[in-house]
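User: Could you check the structure of this?
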Amino acid sequence: MGIRLGDNQYGKAEVRLVHIDRGTDVHRIKDISVTSQLRGDFEAVHVEGDNANCIPTDTQKNTVYAFAKENNGVGAVEDFALLLARHFVDEHDCVRGARQEIEEYGWDRIATADGPHDHSFVRRGGETRTTVVTKDGDQEWVVSGLDGLTVLKSTGSEFHGYPKTKYTTLKETTDRILATDVTARWRYIGTDVDWDKAYASVRAILLETFATTHSLALQQTLYAMGTAVLEAHPEIAEVKFSMPNNHHFLVDLSPFGLDNPNEVFFAADRPYGKIEATVERDDAPDAGRAWETVPGFV
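Assistant: Sure, the predicted C-alpha cells are below.
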C-alpha cells in the first residue's frame, strides 16, 4: 500500500487589521480580518520537514500589515485580496495558488448635535462584508458577499397550500411575519469591476426586493432577490444564498381574555427552517475553483 500527500494549503488565519485614513480632519476607518492561504510545492515540508519552500505564516501576516501602509490603505477588500494573492503567487516560485479571504466590519460616524463626528465611530450591527479571492496560476476568481443582513417584514407574507400529513400541525396563513438573516455570495465574471459600487448596489437590491416582493414562501423571495441582482449586474455570474426562516409564532392570549390580531409574537431562535439555493445565469462561464474555497454553500 502506497501513501502520499494529498491536496494541501497553509497560511495565517484571521489577521485583524484596522487602518485609519488621516488624510483629512475627517478620518476614515477600515476594519478587516484577513485569512491568507497558499498552495504549491510544499511536499518536502510535510514529508521530510524541509522548510526550504515554507514561507512562514508570520510572513503572510506581516505582508498584510505592510501592504496596508505601502498602498495607502486597504481600499475595496476585493482589490486588497487580489493584491495579496498576486504578490504571493508572482513573487514566490514555490507558490502556485493563493486563497485570500477578507471580512470587513462596518463603522458609522457617531451622530452629534453638530452632525456626524469627524473621528468617533459606532460599530454597525452584526452585518459583515466578505470576499474570497482565489488565484491558481494565471486564473483568478472573486466571490464576494455579506453575512448577517437581518431583515423582517411584518406583513406581505403568506404560507399555504403545502402537503398535509398526520404529522402536520402548522396552520396555513395569509398574513405572517417573514424574517431572516441573509447570507449571500456572488461570483464575479472577471476582475475589472468597481467593487465598492457593485457591493452597495447588490446590497440595496437585496433589501428592496425583500421589502417589495409579496412572499408566498421564503424560497420565492430568495429567488426574486437573486434574479433582481443578476438582471442589474451582468458582471455577476451567480448568487448563492443561505437564509434561515426566523420563525415568529403568534402568542395565544385567549387564556387571559385578550385578542391577538397579529400583534404579539414569540420569536423562536431554534429550531428554524434553513433555505439554501443558487440563482445563476444559464450561460455563465465555468466557476473553476471559485467555489472550492467558499465552503458551506450548495
